[in-house]
């Protein structure tokens, strides 16, 4: 069933239809939130993703083209994160907490095969460098590596072409490689 069909069913009062849409798009929304909030951490990104999904449900009647539900919802997620980032009430999470993220250990295995302490340090360093990337590069990395999206899936969610996703990934990898090499010297 397409997104458009599910949107039409949800608008007709079938709550399970929006549940299916939310399940289908939750990982991508979470990726956008992770990329936007950076160091604030996983908990903040998860809260913001939930808020974006709720805002999507509440605003479903405002969606002009039901077939474009995904990009529309991603836009809501971006605005939700921007609202939060501008808010004076947001809280910061320490860099140590970032090191405890389950993705850090996965990143450590990718970085190299050194001693466990070295791997953890390199993974933390890599995560800091990912956070320093310009937002479009961070977003595409999150979609591709953390949520195993294809170029096409990432392109659809971000509202760009697959070629743009490829170019951004290539540029992001080059920037990370250069920064990591510079820090080793």
Structure description:
Helices cover about 75% and strands about 0% of the residues. The protein has about 180 residues and is an all-alpha fold. It has two domains: about 5-85, Rna Polymerase Sigma Factor, Chain: A, CATH 1.10.1740.10; about 95-185, Arc Repressor Mutant, subunit A. It is elongated, with a radius of gyration of 18 Å. Residues about 90-115 have low confidence and may be disordered.
Task: State the gist of this model.
By secondary structure, the chain is mainly α. Helices cover 77% and strands 0% of the residues.
* CATH-scheme architecture of the largest domain: Orthogonal Bundle
How many strands in all? 0
What profile does the largest beta sheet have? none
CATH hierarchy class name of the largest domain: Mainly Alpha
The coarse overall form would be elongated
Which range does the strand content fall in? under 5%
Tell me the CATH superfamily of the largest domain: Winged helix-like DNA-binding domain superfamily/Winged helix DNA-binding domain
Tally of separate helices:
10
Distance between the termini: 53 Å
Count of domains: 2
What's the Cα radius of gyration? Answer: 18 Å
The secondary-structure class comes to mainly alpha
Overall mean pLDDT: 78
């Amino acid at each position: 069933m397409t997104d458009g069909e599910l949107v039409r069913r949800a608008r007709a009062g079938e709550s399970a239809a929006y549940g299916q849409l939310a399940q289908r798009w939750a990982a991508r929304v979470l990726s956008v939130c992770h990329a936007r909030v950076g160091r604030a951490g996983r908990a903040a990104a998860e809260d913001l993703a939930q808020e974006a999904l709720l805002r999507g449900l509440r605003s479903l009647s405002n969606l002009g083209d039901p077939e474009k539900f995904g990009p529309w919802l991603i836009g809501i997620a971006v605005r939700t994160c921007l609202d939060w980032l501008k808010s004076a009430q947001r809280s910061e999470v320490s860099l140590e907490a970032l090191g405890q993220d389950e993705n850090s250990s996965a990143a450590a295995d990718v970085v190299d095969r050194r001693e466990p302490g070295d791997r953890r340090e390199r993974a933390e360093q890599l995560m800091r460098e990912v956070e320093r990337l310009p937002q479009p590069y961070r977003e595409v990395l999150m979609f591709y590596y953390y949520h195993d999206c294809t170029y096409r899936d990432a392109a659809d969610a971000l509202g760009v072409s697959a070629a743009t996703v490829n170019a951004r990934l290539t540029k992001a990898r080059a920037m990370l490689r250069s920064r990591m090499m510079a820090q080793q010297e």
